[in-house]
């Protein structure tokens, strides 16, 4: 049997991981297993004060369990790829791994006060799970399809 793995990098809140795992299980109708992953410190770029998502994907490919349908890693670190200022997530298109960042989904990232606990409201739960769902769709279902429909899909979840 194949499983959809949700991997928490060292700094991820357990409630956020649980919400993402539940939403992925609903969306893909697949059993979900949790996986502990190391923090993304190895991918930190001091000049940008962010973590590179490409090295993170490389590590995920190496750590992806044999019985994994897909592996979605969740981090609190801000992510980037060299040609973009930041990314909410990065998926191996047509592959088995993706990483999702919750950093920019929190008001505190922008210097504003938090609105209670991060997952205390339905909007914050939706906000935290959308990048994971989109990344999972990229690695699971659209390997050969153009991504023009993703903004429409994002509004539907």
Mean pLDDT figure: 78
Order of helices and strands: EHEEEHEEEEEHH
CATH superfamily: Collagenase (Catalytic Domain)
CATH-defined topology: Collagenase (Catalytic Domain)
What general form does the structure show?
globular
List the strand order in the largest sheet.
2-1-5-9-8
Number of strands: 9
Which CATH architecture would you pick?
3-Layer(aba) Sandwich
Which segments are poorly predicted (pLDDT under 50) over 5 or more consecutive residues? Answer: 142-157
The oligomeric state of the chains shown is single chain
Beta-strand percent range: 15-25%
Q: Class, according to the CATH hierarchy? A: Alpha Beta
Molecular structure report:
The protein is of the alpha/beta class and 157 residues long. It has one domain: Collagenase (Catalytic Domain). The protein is built from four helices and nine strands; from the N terminus they run E-H-E-E-E-H-E-E-E-E-E-H-H. It has helices at residues 14-28, 53-63, 122-140, 150-156, and strands spanning 3-8, 32-36, 44-45, 50-52, 68-75, 79-81, 84-87, 89-91, 97-101. It has a five-stranded mixed beta sheet with strand order 2-1-5-9-8, with helices on both faces. Strands 3-4-6-7 form a four-stranded mixed beta sheet. A hairpin with a 5-residue loop joins strand 8 (89-91) and strand 9 (97-101). The chain is globular, with a radius of gyration of 15 Å. The chain starts with a strand and ends with a helix.
